[in-house]
Amino acid sequence: MSVEPAGGPLVELRDVNKHFGALHVLRDINLSVARGEVVVVIGPSGSGKSTLCRTINRLETIDSGTIAVDGHPLPAEGKELARLRADVGMVFQAFNLFAHKTVLQNVTLGPVKAKGVKKSEAEKTAMELLDRVGVADQARKLPAQLSGGQQQRVAIARALAMKPKVMLFDEPTSALDPEMINEVLEVMIGLAHDGMTMIVVTHEMGFARRAANRVVFMDAGSIVEEATPEEFFTNAQSDRARDFLSKILTH
Ligand SMILES: Nc1ncnc2c1ncn2[C@@H]1O[C@H](COP(=O)(O)OP(=O)(O)OP(=O)(O)O)[C@@H](O)[C@H]1O
Ligand SMILES: [Mg+2]
């Protein structure tokens, strides 16, 4: 039993259901993420992990249930939605940087356009963030001039520039060459240690063990099992989780 800190969970999904046509992709999802908690979501391809992330910042609508961020239910649209979306930073597998803008511009664009931050101030913050993720020396380059690992770190800095309350990561290292995976994971572990609330879809067990408070295992649209990383990786309870682990552990 975990005790919720004052202020309640930062992210709370209650009885969330989502269909794509006839396909029931999220089934009665209940998930509470506390402030400062790091939750790793794992599960087979097609189990609904990306869809779950996308509903939390309202890139996808839900059919029933509720999602609240910091106590506020996600509004349908308008200014309120934009504000809540800014509370939820997202980093995808594909870095999705603006190709024709410099690294620095990629990081300042959101704060300047969406939050009305002065350009000089946005640039100062951006340089601090780029320094934090280890790519300050790349600020004047275009994304294509950076390695995949560097681009993904810029994407993290860009998300952080909006001062989100929670960061969602959807397989942030799965498009990277092996030697670049660690540099991105190190940045994420640093964020976790600094107290950022994070929901991370990843099969990187090293990250889960070092940074996660909890592992959530999804299969066929349902949360099948939740446990600490240690419990989950050594003593999964469900057949589906054990079957899944036997596949990823042997590769
Ligand atoms: N826009 C969409 N329209 C129709 N079906 C979709 C759409 N997006 C996802 N799906 C389907 O919903 C299910 C869940 O997809 P989702 O991308 O959330 O899975 P996932 O767990 O992230 O898988 P992966 O590990 O391959 O990334 C899959 O069956 C997928 O084909
Ligand atoms: Mg996915």
TrEMBL record:
Note whether Nuclease occurs among the keywords: no
Q: What class of enzyme is it?
A: translocase
- Entry keywords, A to Z: Amino-acid transport, ATP-binding, Cell membrane, Membrane, Nucleotide-binding, Transport
According to the UniProt entry, the coiled-coil residues are: none
List the membrane topology term(s): Peripheral membrane protein
- GO cellular-component term (any): plasma membrane
Instruction: Specify the ABC transporter domain's residue ranges.
Output: 11-245
InterPro entries associated with the record: AAA+_ATPase (IPR003593), ABC_ATPase_HisP-typ (IPR030679), ABC_transporter-like_ATP-bd (IPR003439), ABC_transporter-like_CS (IPR017871), MetN_ABC_transporter-like (IPR050086), P-loop_NTPase (IPR027417)
Q: What is its main location?
A: membrane
Report whether Membrane shows up as a keyword of the record: yes
Question: What's its catalytic activity?
Answer: a polar amino acid(out) + ATP + H2O = a polar amino acid(in) + ADP + phosphate + H(+)
Q: Where in the cell is it found?
A: Cell membrane
Q: Which domain of life is it from?
A: Bacteria
EC numbers listed for it are: 7.4.2.1
Protein name (database record)? ABC-type polar-amino-acid transporter
Q: Which organism is it from?
A: Jiangella alkaliphila
